[in-house]
Amino acid sequence: MSVEVRVPTLGESVTEATVATWFKKPGDTVAVDEMLCELETDKVTVEVPAPAAGTLSEIVAGEGETVGVDALLAMLAEAGSAGSETPTPRPSADKPVEEAKTDAGSAADVDVMVPTLGESVSEATVSTWFKKVGDTVAQDEMLCELETDKVSVEVPAPAAGTLTEILASEGDTVDASAKLGVISSGGAASASNAKSAQDGEYVAELAAKKSGKDVEDAPSAKKLMAEKGIDAGAVSGSGKDGRIMKEDVLKAMTAPKAAAAPAAAPRAASPAADADREERVKMTRLRQTIARRLKDSQNTAAMLTTYNEVDMTEVMALRNEYKDLFLKKHGVKLGFMSFFTKACIHALKEVPEVNAEIDGTDVVYKNYVHMGIAAGTPTGLVVPVIRDADQMSFADIEKAIAEKGAKARDGKLSMAEMQGGSFTISNGGVYGSLMSSPILNPPQSGILGMHKIQDRPMAINGQVVIRPMMYLALSYDHRIVDGKGAVTFLVRVKEALEDPRRLLMDL
């Protein structure tokens, strides 16, 4: 008999959590109330106990996934039931598996295939192998990581066994149906060895946890440390029992460095003398795509930028007045992005050509707003899309921005989450930019650039007063948007932010 493991009640106003750590693997035997996994919310950490004794037959929500209240986490086969035997690994849509037909009890080779990469993505580059030929692997253990134009894709082991062959080395480009490697499941004997290896790993894991250090750091963290030449001992782990996560490595990279040794005496300037002080690194596929798309945008669109400035006094006052109540009720902080998103939606209704695109000799007007929110990540700029933002409340927008931003930083955005945007907002102010001209995100016809809020003297009713001011920039495609429309759009955004009540009145 199968027993469902579901997300427990998370607390008042908390509607979702992230799966932080699984303490068990499929096939492991568990006792009733034994800890299976740990969930993290924006407020607390929640441990999930086993509702019954038996065998963990399937993990539905992997580490790093966001789940809602009562969502299905895993399945247990109760001890003594017909279904308590360890299940045979089964292929899924995103983990295609091809197995050689063999007699019962004999060895079987399982092909490791490229998983589904997303719509319109036909190839990827093998970024990192976490295992080498001869290594014993458990089912769903990370074998390698692929890099596409947009996202990084981790490839799990489709079955337990031994990695006998690697067919695509690091740096190789593979298509969407390519074979990456071969795992020998080894029939009954190998399965027993794999189970023993899993048991050994679990015992080692328990011993390590008693010493306060997890066995395995996050694969994305190990990859980043290898790329940047960072020793794990120099990184403080924030995961379960000291497990190093990707964000821990990023913090270590930005931490103040110790005083450098005195610089060597300058050498004679010459190209040959400088060559050994240079480092040549191949551009990632994401960086290549960013470069190509931005240059295509400049070459294709008749891009022009118009500027204005906004007094942020009223928005800041409104935010300060309600931010505590907002957080208590909705479980998310009230930021400035929701105000700007609402103001842009308001302006797009009056100037619909800014929310349109050119398709050949046609103009396609969008009767919806799929808002792109540009986000800088350690690997480059990405633009996750908040679909139907015009139908959302302030709280819904803030939750969506927080969720997409976290996924972007962790490299977990799917292709679908970055496609179909109709307008984009880019906030260079978080980096201290005072003024810039954003580049269009094709095929969109408009992008709003936000900048740093800075106190400046302003003339208000004949008096010089200090106000928190922000420069705004709207880059637009002059082929479809006239100057009048662009200026009107930016003025409407300015008016809505300087008097937020206009958003409520739809004025």
Automatic annotation (TrEMBL):
For this protein, the record's InterPro entries field holds: 2-oxoacid_dehydrogenase, 2-oxoacid_DH_actylTfrase, Biotin_lipoyl, CAT-like_dom_sf, E3-bd_dom_sf, PSBD, Single_hybrid_motif, SucB
Q: What Gene3D superfamilies does this protein map onto? A: 2.40.50.100, Chloramphenicol acetyltransferase-like domain, E3-binding domain
Asked if Oxidoreductase is a keyword of the record, the answer is: no
Q: Record's family? A: Belongs to the 2-oxoacid dehydrogenase family.
Q: What does this protein do?
A: E2 component of the 2-oxoglutarate dehydrogenase (OGDH) complex which catalyzes the second step in the conversion of 2-oxoglutarate to succinyl-CoA and CO(2).
Q: Which organism is it from?
A: Aquimixticola soesokkakensis
Q: Which reaction does it catalyse?
A: N(6)-[(R)-dihydrolipoyl]-L-lysyl-[protein] + succinyl-CoA = N(6)-[(R)-S(8)-succinyldihydrolipoyl]-L-lysyl-[protein] + CoA
Name the cofactor(s) required for activity, per the record. (R)-lipoate
Q: Give me the stretches of Low complexity compositional bias.
A: 260-273
Gene label:
sucB
- In residue numbers, the region (Disordered) covers 80-106, 260-279
Ranges of compositional bias, category Basic and acidic residues: 92-102
Domain (Lipoyl-binding) spans 2-77, 109-184
Q: Work out whether the entry's keyword set contains S-adenosyl-L-methionine.
A: no
**Pathway linked to the protein:** Amino-acid degradation; L-lysine degradation via saccharopine pathway; glutaryl-CoA from L-lysine: step 6/6
Protein name per UniProt: Dihydrolipoyllysine-residue succinyltransferase component of 2-oxoglutarate dehydrogenase complex
* GO MF annotations, alphabetized: dihydrolipoyllysine-residue succinyltransferase activity
